[in-house]
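Re: [help] complex structure
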Amino acid sequence: MSASLSSLKRILIGEPFPTHREIHERLDKVRALAIFASDPISSNAYATEAIMSVLLIMGTGALNLTLPLALGVMALVLLVVFSYIQTILHYPDGGGAYTVTKDNLGRNPALFAGAALLIDYVLTVSVSVSAGIRAVTSAVPWLLPYSIFLALLAIFILTMINLRGVRESGTIFAIPTYLFILGVIITVVLGLARFAGLFGLTPPVPPELPPHVELETVGNVSNWLFLWLVLRAFAAGCTALTGIEAISNGVQAFKPPEAKNAAKTMVAMGLIAMILFGGITYVATHIGLVPYEEESILSQMARSVTEGLPGGGFLYYWVQLFTMLILILAANTGYQDFPRLSSFLAHDGFMPRWMTNRGDRLVYNYGIITLAAISSIVVVIFRADEIAMLPLYALGVMLCFTLSQASMFKLMGRIAHLKPGEKMKTHVTEIHYEKGTWWKRPLNGIGAIVTGIVLVILILTKFTEGAWAVVIIIPILVWGFHRTNEHYAAVAKTLSLQDFNMAELHTIADVVIVPIAGVHKGTLQALRYAKRFSQDVRAVYINTNEEVHQRILRRWHEIGEITEGIHLVVIPTDFRDILTPLVEYIDQVNDVEFANQTITVVVPEFVPDAVPARILHNQTALLLRERLRHHGDVVIIDVPFQVHG
Amino acid sequence: MSASLSSLKRILIGEPFPTHREIHERLDKVRALAIFASDPISSNAYATEAIMSVLLIMGTGALNLTLPLALGVMALVLLVVFSYIQTILHYPDGGGAYTVTKDNLGRNPALFAGAALLIDYVLTVSVSVSAGIRAVTSAVPWLLPYSIFLALLAIFILTMINLRGVRESGTIFAIPTYLFILGVIITVVLGLARFAGLFGLTPPVPPELPPHVELETVGNVSNWLFLWLVLRAFAAGCTALTGIEAISNGVQAFKPPEAKNAAKTMVAMGLIAMILFGGITYVATHIGLVPYEEESILSQMARSVTEGLPGGGFLYYWVQLFTMLILILAANTGYQDFPRLSSFLAHDGFMPRWMTNRGDRLVYNYGIITLAAISSIVVVIFRADEIAMLPLYALGVMLCFTLSQASMFKLMGRIAHLKPGEKMKTHVTEIHYEKGTWWKRPLNGIGAIVTGIVLVILILTKFTEGAWAVVIIIPILVWGFHRTNEHYAAVAKTLSLQDFNMAELHTIADVVIVPIAGVHKGTLQALRYAKRFSQDVRAVYINTNEEVHQRILRRWHEIGEITEGIHLVVIPTDFRDILTPLVEYIDQVNDVEFANQTITVVVPEFVPDAVPARILHNQTALLLRERLRHHGDVVIIDVPFQVHG
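Output below.
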């Protein structure tokens, strides 16, 4: 059975890679862009709609503000991209917001950044997969009742692909990402061409709103409300920022020179994001599109632009298909960064150490599986309804931007004090003199302040819709990080050989206790093993049944060759629970007879051929181990006895 | 934590009973009737309606057949009760259909009887609890969305009460059972008094059917269809038989003389069942009641009979309330017999042996918990809809009646051959000469044939509605019984000391392998333990990390006092999986160096104070044990090292 499990694993995951192959598994820039940028690129494609939906509360006239607000968001995107490029170049070993915050603002802010990002990556997976499956079920309505199942299936498939390794998943995910970008850019360019009247084309016409769509507006608004709504629209547009940090956490996934390649990819990602966001916003607002629930702005735009053109239907479906795919693939950004970030935290002792272990295909498979499990739970809790999850989303990433840009602001301050040629070590990196800190520093500062304001707006507007959960969970996670760290520190202290003294080790008492329930080959094997290393072997029978007791006594003397010299202790009990008197006897031997020494218990154990047959045997050894686990000075020996059939 | 769990258990279940108290925990006849008869008595109360519902297909005129058919069913009930009294008297050690079939028809028919009964007991619990909860949610409609939860809660409460012991649960369940019987009997007597015109009472009038109830009838039917429908009505009425066998499985729960007390209780139960069934049928048909979905015949009857009488409303609600309670309590019959029957099967090696163990309160608690778990699953699968479960129900018990009566037919044949004063041993009991076999035997034969016919009718009419599942599961269970038995037989053979030869025991090689991942106090403790009983101790480090390797080498020489004489084996690997090379090394030592000898592996194990902290450590010891479990000749020793914090 274990052989077939292992070959199933080989089929799903592939053959293991040797450790030295690690460098071959690194990503080139083309794959890296696809693998890290699916989330930021898809969020850019939707940011326009997010702004419009808020503005629409004030009527269609307010939609005029879309383009100016989008320009503001784009400026912020540029600021953040710039800040992260700085981070990557100054922290070439990777780690993103967590590392840069740890180095500049200290441990606690860094842990908050880490917790916020982990939560956001879980939500990236849950939201993207649910949104992708909603697109599928909109097209094929009879699948609707299975949406939770389909979302879990999508998570399972993504998990398998990611367990196959970074490079392989990069290859699989590259094609749909680039085809999506291509489709949207062609649509935008075509839209611009129609407005310009090139080749005799006519400007696109907005589709008629379906008759049932009623635009509810508040009409005239006070100045304060107006300001509030504009801020909210701006905050909503900041969805374009999600995923920008992805590359900074994954620098070590790039081929060398890692930092340079990562920075270049970051520039490419920023450019593509700007083109998509700017292009969509410009074309959509120029056509005069109005957002409504049933059809996204992107779909409306593709429909208007391709209307009446030969081959336009093909382009429209192209955009639709790859929109659906990139929605699901956006989840992959979470799969890339959650395991890496966990491994950073685990390496520093804030998460279980085994999260730093890499699996057969050189990926952090425990992180991947943890992410898959938690996001599956989120999908089930929210019944694959991404609209309900959205209020929880984007808080974490905004907290992170604020912290990382504040960190860069501080770092730039330290660099500004260096003289030409001078260099200096921080906790985790080395900084050199560089030019331009006088303008770089304020940019980071402005970025931090703006993203901080956006964070506050997001919390205020979404608190009651679910954001409260994130506000509660982040500090709980940070508390867990601290507890974990304390535990590891205590363990290290206990195990340390500093000032080691032989007397600290327990001495080993010359006594062995063998609990028996009968006299048969299994028991004899165990008794013989026990006799081999102690003069004082005690077979203990808890007498619940006089008949069995007499049978044991009879056989005990028959097999004198082995039982000779072994003391048979019979403890009568008038209850059916045999563990309690057994543990009491062991306690007494351990605490009274051989205080402060290590004693040994030998447990005869049946090992049936087939795993299911275990259920047919009492799990006394297992239960005894559990009961004795707090005894640091009881050694338990399982002597297996193979039974066939 | 384990202390608070244990005190919670004490509160829910009570203090443990010593084994010698077993006899005090036995049931007197009054409690026993309540505990075993809740199922048969409640099913008698519904049998009339079951007959009428089938007859109604042929129109209200056909309802005239209700009374004659009910008389037929009553005759069958008497036959079965008679047969079971004979079983109890001839098999005073209890065991019911399983034991009597094993003794007379052989192992396989007995296992079929056992499997059928176990399934029926599970369904008894699921059906009764769901029906009871339906009665609750009909009265309190806002509870409807919680019906699955409420049904599971009811199962949990029943489980706790049953874990408290037989006598205690008997006391708790006696009152509602007797109050139900009393209420129905008063209603029937009152009905008869009104028909007789005693005290100037007027005959009861049937309630008007609600306007929306349309009686769909087939009108004129052919002779064959008529016969088929009458047979189906008869089979439906045989629901009155379910639960009759309960006492026969529970003879050992009675105070001594067990068989006599059980037989007397059986007679009382038969009488009460007859009075209820006959009385309800007579009064209901005389009033001219017509069954319809929203209101049961019992409720209609109680309403008609109490109509216009002072205090009548009180009697009506009395009957309603205790009907609801007895529905839930009927589940208790399953709780009594499933664990006992499981223990019989386990005692014969057909189910896990530990099902014969009795818990703190002298009940078969593994059987109780198994029943609770399986019936909870059934409740969830069928979403607490007992109507959907009914087609699966009653098949098993009918198969059982057929087999047990056929067995008694055979046994009576053997008794008939005995001469006065003569006696004879069968496999499990002793039979004596007795009078009257000439009439007892044919009664058993007729009973077997009639219940056999009913079984066939039930399978035919309910097959597609779900009975197929039972038809499939019974042979699967029987197959499982056989597999279990074969396993135990193989184990017994392997362990047996018959013709025992010392050479059969493995010799123990003088070698100990200690896998290490570092050099610290935990490792030293393990190495020191290993050195104590072998000259050839080998510390094995799987080298995945050269840095760690060098650190180990450095420390190894620092702690020469302990590491002296120990061979440090370093196995380089270019993969991250350390278990595979470790197991390969152990295999090689075990198969090549020390072929056919037992070798020893000492595993240093961290034991953190708190259970959750385990997640922070690699479970290498656990995984290694799993990987080595098929090696009958590798002994694994855990040397615990307590870590605080």
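The radius of gyration of chain A is 32 Å.
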